[in-house]
Amino acid sequence: MFWTAKILAFALSTFLRMATGFDIGLSTKCVAIPKEMDMCHKIGYSEMRLPNLMGHTSMAEVILKSTTWQYLVHTDCHPHVRTFLCSLFAPICLDTFIHPCRSMCIAVRDSCAPVLACHGHSWPDSLDCDRFPADEDMCLASLAKEYNYLHKVLPKPVCQTCPAVEEFFTHKRILEVFCDNNFVKLSKKRTVLGDQEYNTECQVEFIIQGSILPYETQNMIQQWLLINENCTERMTQTHRPMVYLLVGNIEAGVVLVNQVYHWQRRDSQLTLATQKWRYHKCL
User: What is the pTM of this model?
Assistant: First the structure.
């Protein structure tokens, strides 16, 4: 959740549950949130307490341990994943430490643990939800219901079996695949300073029109690429810029990519299929 400095006091008064604050028993100091902690920028405050609630005593340790979690924030696996992690790694500089509530931990864990599992990791013992206070204590409470009321809840990508990358096909077969799915998306991969960066470009074309707007799917497909990173890396093993056509379904609140086509330069079959699709009628 993003807080502006202006509404921070109101947000905290909404989140906090009356009780005694948490004290780690160490002398703490207020320090600026380092620029390397991208996930904890623009959250309504610029200073954090050190040591933090993860027991990190040096800024070097904070940066090292927190950066491994930034990809999880980018997947947007839960509306409060940023709030949850930053409350631990970069706790706000108040007179007392404020833990996330147990309910927030459980909500974030249940949504984000499958993403970690997709990357071969389990939910860590250091974030065991039993260590956090109950909602009647002073803590950051989950506002999932309020969030869902104020924000449009979009379908979520999930960890899935890697779809095959098709390189040999006919335009007729591609049209059949389009008819069996309900969205088509172009995805480009480029290399930036030796690191892989995946971008979704071009408009999504919906085969079956629904309540999801084309621009909203760009973020959903980017999340799919992040969540299914092992699959994405296998699709793009070369360091040359690659273009792929992703075809899939959005059903029951879940985004699934069912087919991936490698769109090579001067690929006449894919070009022909996309041209014919405008006038094509599915059987």
Answer: 0.72
Contacts of 70 (CB under 8 A, 6+ apart): 37, 38, 39
Burial zone of 95 (CB within 10 Å; 0-12 exposed, 13-18 middle, 19+ buried): exposed
User: Distance (Å, rounded) from C-alpha 86 to C-alpha 34?
Assistant: 12
Element at 250 (helix H, strand E): strand 242-251
214 alpha carbon, distance to own chain's centre: 19
Rg (C-alpha) for the chain, rounded Å, is 22
Q: What is the pLDDT of residues 233-258, one digit of tens each?
A: 777 666 666 778 888 888 878 888 99
Catalogue all structural domains in the chain, each as residue range(s) with its CATH number.
5-150 (1.10.2000.10), 156-277 (no CATH)
Numbers of helices and strands, H then E, in the chain: 10, 10
Amino acid letter for position 166: E
Answer positive or negative: Cα dihedral of 4, 10, 14, 19: positive
CA atoms within 13 Å, Cβ hemisphere of 83: 26
* Cα–Cα dist 73/111, whole Å: 12
